[in-house]
Amino acid sequence: MSAAISAVPPPVAEPTGGWSSRRLMSAAASDLAGHAERLGGIPWQSRRGSLLTELEASGLTGRGGAGFPAWRKLAAVAAADRPVIVANAAEGEPASAKDAALLSHAPHLVLDGLQLAAEAAGAGDVHLYVKAGPGAASARRALAERRGWDRFRVRVHEAAPGFVSGEESAVISSLSGGPALPTFKRRLAVESGVGGRPTLVSNVETLAHLAMIARYGHRWFRTLGTAAEPGTFLATLSGAVEWPGVVEAPYGIRLRDLLGLAGGPAGPARAVLVGGYHGAWVPADAGLDAPVSRAGLAPWGATPGAGVAVVLPAGECGLANTATIARYLAGQSARQCGPCLNGLPTMADALSRLARCERDPRLVGQVERMAGLVAGRGVCHHPDGTVRLVRSALRVFETDVRAHLSGGCEERHGRMGGMR
After folding, report:
1. Could you give all domains of the chain from N- to C-terminal order, each with its CATH number?
2. For residue range 378-413, what is the model confidence (pLDDT) as tens digits?
3. Angle subtended at Cα 72 by Cα 139 and Cα 29, rounded to the nearest 5 degrees
């Protein structure tokens, strides 16, 4: 790729469309005085259940990637006795920088949302689980400012490095004193999480939206986005774009226009990796006019996920780039179950041999066979996400596959930024 994913800068200014579609970033203030001047104090809910009613009507979904209705998880722990509330900013996805950017530019908006979620649930303990770096430093400064402002004490925990460290059960394991690795879940986190207590793990962007909905209501929230996916989302744009960075846009925006918020592709584009390393490739020729929504991206097996779009330039080999990511993901597994311990490395090895132009007609079958054996059988969804990426590469880069099996490829074998 032309830009290193691991070095994505802070949010870029929106060159078109004005500020009306940038709700979180337009409300941003890194200091408490500026935050209070723009948004006032925390809109505590005087009537129990009122926030849940607004959240359900708003249609807010989790912004960590899964897209689960936010109100359902909050309602589940609100029915329990003094549950645990966790703001998750682990952001182990190498292609994402949105959570760190949000905490750097609008930490108080996130912390307001965390306080409101804690109030709505009647929380006993409240935690911020955050990746080390500028976002974590900003959050700690903000918490120091908020003494006397908050009702609930927030404990800050530094997330362990690694792709899977932000997975819900890995977060719970870490906060319970164990390793930051996914665990087999006999019960849902909202039933038994940190220390065996009902636990809500919510992405920090979700909490920032919650704080805005508490202030302005569900009708305001639904004025942007689509009927099925209302509101805005933060997206990390990288690869071959003019200005890599984090932008905010409404769901339903065309992929072409989303990339335009980063200046557009830096030259002809071949494909876009949508949704991150557990996402899927969308071909540039047919997919740039697709709406960025679950329905709009469904023809390519993609979803908006955690708001990642990486542009692959024309002339670069998509198969080789995917093999690099697959090797990385195989090395990032928890190595606790057969699909991760054996399946992912075997699948990545076969794909890598194909990327090296080995003339073995059995390689594609080997990749597809391992994908079938791995999918749906892991302790967590790490194997499923890796299979999604690999299968999309075989479809979208079919010409590369044929060329490699013939012993050559005319495309450059570039490497995704941030990979080792």
Report:
1. 16-221 (3.40.50.11540), 232-313 (3.10.20.600), 318-405 (1.20.1440.230)
2. 667 788 999 999 999 999 999 999 999 988 786 666
3. 25
